[in-house]
Write a structure and sequence with these properties.
Helix content: 40-55%
CATH superfamily of the largest domain: P-loop containing nucleotide triphosphate hydrolases
CATH class of the largest domain: Alpha Beta
Bound molecules: adenosine-5'-triphosphate
Number of strands: 5
Shape: globular
Strand content: 5-15%
Radius of gyration: 22 Å
Structural class: alpha/beta
Strand order of the largest sheet: 2-3-4-1-5
CATH architecture of the largest domain: 3-Layer(aba) Sandwich
CATH topology of the largest domain: Rossmann fold
Number of domains: 2
């Protein structure tokens, strides 16, 4: 079901531009997770950890995932939810991952109508209430039933969460699941509740600290007269690390 491509992304935590304290915290968290087999066994929980990476495009969410994989030497599985037929298929796909893996679901806000599904259900209940006393057309009822069955055959938020919550306990191995989004505010709060996403990481516009990492990577410069001015401008502007990096590339 998965097609295999050798993972050879060069990004590491050394080349990742972000606040050094925040970066160190994430590295510590990952190492702590990967060396905690006994702890998870002791508390009787699946050895898994969920990360939510959020922030504007070009702030390094994909780069961060590559750095995670390179640090832990895990396989990366890119899961395109919109192409998964139903919860059964989702289950099969996830069981089929290797025992040291990072499962990535990018742009979660676009993959599933996470907020919509709940709203639709509520709207439907209201509609049904209104109709309670009205005569019900059997043909219409049948159509509704079919529509509902069709809906049930798709990947749902609850299918996804159930999987994250439970199934891995049966599989063994260490699994990291990473969700990314450019619009954290659009997500269903149930998805980002603690316990489901263990760590939420905001990827933000390029700070001066992040700029220094990029200057070192791209130009081999640690310090320069213009740095003070760049630092001031970085505070004033909202530039993504991707934009900064592009400007540091030879033209
Ligand atoms: N924090 C960063 N550190 C180092 N390089 C970065 C960083 N952010 C972006 N880049 C550079 O910009 C390119 C695009 O960034 P990336 O794809 O990681 O961003 P993204 O947040 O995943 O964007 P999108 O939301 O569009 O997927 C990367 O290949 C990398 O070269």
């Amino acid at each position: 079901m998965w097609s295999h491509v050798a993972f050879e992304h060069p990004a590491t935590f050394d080349t990742l531009a972000m606040d050094p304290d925040k970066k160190q915290e994430i590295v510590n968290d990952l190492i702590n997770f990967s060396t905690s087999k006994d702890y998870y066994a002791k508390i009787g929980k699946a050895w898994k950890r969920g990360y939510l990476l959020f922030g504007p495009a070009g702030t390094g969410k994909s780069t961060m995932i590559a750095a995670m994989a390179n640090l832990l030497k895990y396989d990366v599985y890119d899961l395109e939810l919109t192409t998964v037929k139903d919860n059964t298929e989702l289950r099969k796909l996830l069981i089929d991952t290797s025992s040291k893996s990072i499962i990535v679901i990018e742009d979660i806000d676009c993959s599933l109508d996470l907020t919509g599904q709940r709203k639709k259900k509520k709207d439907k209940e209201e509609d049904d209430d209104k109709k309670k006393d009205e005569e019900k057309d059997p043909a219409e009822e049948q159509m509704k039933k079919m529509e509902q069955e069709n809906k049930n055959s798709q990947v749902t938020l609850s299918g996804l969460l159930n999987f994250i919550d439970g199934l891995w306990s049966a599989c063994g191995g260490e699994r990291i699941i990473v969700f990314t989004t450019n619009y954290v505010e659009k997500l269903d709060p149930a998805l980002i509740r603690r316990g489901r996403m263990d760590k939420q990481i905001e990827m933000s516009y390029c700070s001066f600290e992040a700029f220094k990492v990029l200057a070192k990577n791209y130009l081999d410069i640690n310090s320069q007269d213009l740095f003070a001015e760049v630092g001031r401008l970085m505070e004033e502007t909202k530039m993504t690390p991707a934009d900064v990096a592009e400007n540091l590339m030879p033209k």
